[in-house]
Amino acid sequence: MHKDIKPGVVVSLQHYSVITNFKAHVLDAKEDYFTVRVPKDFSTKTFQTGDPVVFGFESGDEVFIRGGIIFEMNTYEKTISVKPDREPTDSESQNRLYERHPVSLYADVRTPSIRKKFLAIISDMSYYGMLFHVKEDLTVGEEVDIDIFLDRTIMSQRGTLVRKTSELNYFKYGVKIIHNDPVSYNHIKQYIKSSQQEHVFMFRRD
């Protein structure tokens, strides 16, 4: 975990169930997770263990944005513990064709094998792929239709499941996006940019 995440530090947090990001003070920081108290205006009832979140923090003159999952919760104390995602090694970063950006978004997913829609949570996106978390057990190689809820709009994508892992309450699937038109590509690009700017703005406006 980053050395600048320690008790007293302010972080910005984004969770798919909350319309706007919120700021919170770090109460405790261990080697692989940190704990914050959720502000009074927000409820922890919509949070679940294993949910992906995005957090921002200041280090020097920069704002860093990272992804993670809710590792532990205490609804009575209104605290959540966040386990940051593992940082890619230099070789892993060099081998990736497109940089991944952490997000926390609702989506509806459909597959040929499961006719009904089911809920997915997207935890990272690049311009040509994404990672989503679901409770359903799917098959690598299947095509999926994904409706992503971005603010007041819905972006529809089609992709192929290329890998599968599991963590806490979710299966996690890597998806290769099939772009049908340049509008979809630009929509993803604009969302990633605006999402990052919102985290930076929360620190710069104080």
Summarize the structure.
With 206 residues, the protein is mainly beta.
Question: Can you offer a commentary on this structure?
Answer:
The chain is mostly beta strands. Helices cover 14% and strands 49% of the residues. It has helices at 90-95, 182-204, and strands at 10-15, 22-29, 34-37, 52-59, 62-74, 79-84, 101-110, 118-125, 129-134, 143-150, 153-167, 170-178. It is globular and about 50 Å long. It starts with 9 loop residues before the first strand and ends with a helix.
Topology:
Blueprint: E1 10-15, E2 22-29, E3 34-37, E4 52-59, E5 62-74, E6 79-84, H1 90-95, E7 101-110, E8 118-125, E9 129-134, E10 143-150, E11 153-167, E12 170-178, H2 182-204
Antiparallel strand pairs: 1-2, 1-4, 2-3, 3-6, 4-5, 5-6, 7-8, 7-10, 8-9, 9-12, 10-11, 11-12
CATH architecture of the largest domain: Beta Barrel
Helix proportion range? 10-25%
Shape annotation? globular
- N-to-C terminal Cα separation, in Å? 25 Å
Biggest sheet details: 6 strands, antiparallel, barrel
Give the CATH superfamily of the largest domain.
predicted glycosyltransferase like domains
Key phrases:
14% helix; mainly beta; Thrombin, subunit H; 12 strands; 206 residues
